[in-house]
Amino acid sequence: MNPEENYIAINKHSWNNRTDTHLKSDFYNLTGFLKGETSLNSIELALLGDISGKKILHLQCHFGQDTISLSRLGAKVTGVDLSDKAIESACEIAKDTHADVQFICCDLYELENHLDEQFDLVFTSYGTITWLPDLDKWAKIISRFLKPNGKFIFVEFHPVVWMFDDNFDKIGYNYFNIAPIVETEQGTYADKDAAISQSYVTWNHSMSEVVGALLHNGLNIQDLNEFDYSPYPIFKNMTELDPKKFRIAHLGNKIPMVYAIVARKSE
């Protein structure tokens, strides 16, 4: 199986394989979520503002915690993900929480075959674009589903982070998108000791590639911010500064960990 040609099947299997472990993990804290805790972080909450009554499309939603959290803020939300196992779990969680949300299981690039609406806001966050080979196609999807003057809110791990090896001791990967990265891992970011393993195919995307793709598809950048911490302890050698603020211990605030973009579709 050629990884580049078959990345969708490989990555779908990878995410299906992780889902049960993620549902049971402290990382996702499903017990607290079912009791009403939000899965959204301060970075995206500040960017979202008042979303009551807004129609939101949530891309690459995994098993829907952020989708449901957005709906709890008064939005009408549709979540999309490649993993059928994750979407099945999302539908169960939505039922358990009485959330009025919609979920679609498909490859993101095929979304037009499954949905024919436009939204006030498109949202995606944390570890999403690394699974996509072509950001121009990604930005076209965002533009297609935004209403004129609609807003795109994007929070993602910084491309500098993905340059380092697993221990953050040296540069291990190219900053630029030059080739697919094919790897196999033991465990998963939500439970590094889990008795699972999976292969996956990812791509690194530079800041200019992201911004350029949005600009070329009629999305005007209104805000761009970088953050010297991560809300999640998904990397090795992390230390917690404050609740939900983590850094690589030996690097401190020397590197950006996360960035956020707000863009608006032309009228």
Automatic annotation (TrEMBL):
- SUPFAM superfamilies referenced in this protein's UniProt entry, alphabetically: S-adenosyl-L-methionine-dependent methyltransferases (SSF53335)
Q: Which GO terms describe its biological process?
A: methylation
Record's signal peptide: none
Asked if the record carries the keyword Methyltransferase, the reply is: yes
Q: Which Gene3D superfamilies match?
A: Vaccinia Virus protein VP39
Which keywords has UniProt assigned to this entry? Methyltransferase, Transferase
Out of the domains of life, which is the source? Bacteria
In Swiss-Prot or TrEMBL terms, this protein is called: Class I SAM-dependent methyltransferase
